[in-house]
Design a protein that fits this description.
Elements lengths: L2 H21 L45 E2 L1 E6 L5 E6 L2 E6 L2 E7 L4 H9 L1 E6 L5 H9 L7 H5 L3 E3 L6 E3 L4 E12 L4 E12 L12 H4 L2 E4 L2 E4 L30 H8 L13 H12 L10 E6 L2 H10 L11 E8 H4 L7 H19 L3 E2 L2 E2 L4 H11 L5 E10 L20
Antiparallel strand pairs: 1-11, 2-3, 2-6, 4-5, 5-10, 6-9, 7-8, 9-10, 11-12, 13-14, 14-17, 15-17, 16-17
Helix pairs in contact: 7-10, 8-11
Length: 425
Amino acid sequence: MNKSKFLNIILAIAVLVLVIQLTQKDSGSGRQKTTSVPATADSVLAKSDSAMVPFKKKSLGIRSEVYPKPALVIGSYDEQGKPNIMTAAWVGICNSDPLSISVSMRPATYSYWNVTGSKAFTVNIPSSELVEYVNYAGRVSGRDVDKFKETGLTPVEGEFVNAPYVKEFPIVIECELTEFHDLGSHRQFIGKVIDVKADEAILDAEDHVNVDLLNPLIYAGRGYYETGRSIPEGAYSMNKIDGKPFVPDYSDQYANETLEVIHNRKSVRHFTDRPVSKEQIETLLRAGMAAPTAANRQPWVFYVITQRATLDALAEQLPYAKMLTQVETAIVVCGDMEKAGNLKDEDYWVQDCSAASENILLAAESMGLGAVWTASYPYDDRTQAVINALNLPENHIPLNVIPVGYPTGEDVPKDKWKPENIFWK
């Protein structure tokens, strides 16, 4: 082989390697995120080696890998009128008019024969708090035990159909059997929805179910999961579909949910017009009051602003709180100098109220809400503006104003990891 041909081969190999490397990086034309958080020995990231090769798939054969599956409890009466419940994952809406739900059961189950005979069933939707009952109802047969007696749950006679529902479950759906189909291992029962009942505690002002409060239970893999945070509306905007190639990025997927919330927290300055409920605000305030505090003084008080005129006035007076015009609620974190006592001279109240504020911001992120810290203290003009707007007593000093709402998705977290800021001694 002559020298020029050998050099050409070397050059071709080098070009090939370069092309492969470039295709694995974000060229700027795709959707791949650039945020990168280093993995540690504590298995912070859920990232696997296979994730480095996008779209490489492995055949798993015939398996029911559909995620998530609902974790629902089916109520029915047997021939003697004894109420029974069973947990079912193969359940779903199968028609809109008439609204119908399908439930698939094996002949080996007690409920299979109950529903076949009674021509009715209820679908009971649990919150995550009821996971132990859902698990029990799915592992024990009604032939062997009275599940209501064993669990302490309360059977309630259906108002419209011949089937019981569970009082403790937040949503119950009464269904009348209209048809069934033998599909092989399972019989698919089709039930027309006759009535839906929901606990008032999980309904908003327009009687819509607040999924954050419901926190429905789901089944996936080999265990149960909570529903998790809602995705901001702006994140799935139709405007984001632009024909560019999708490139998956698993680099910031956290196995630890707490760390995920911490790293995904961002200062949200763009909000939708969707209102935040009183219950959600109370949840944020509970998180704030769980913060550490010097000598357990808890030197904080919280003002919740819902008046449109007050929000707009503060937006005009505070230079970095213009987004208050977009939200319907804001939280003002104040230090109570009477509670702070002699520690106020050392500004411990600032540290304590700052910890409470950070808890509120993290809680908002975990709930799918958006929030941002806008400072009043230690700026005299901003502090006085908040005092005047809220007519605060002399012993309450506002640390900040936190607008709260649903984010549009425009604001994203920043990667602030800088190893050069760490000094090991």
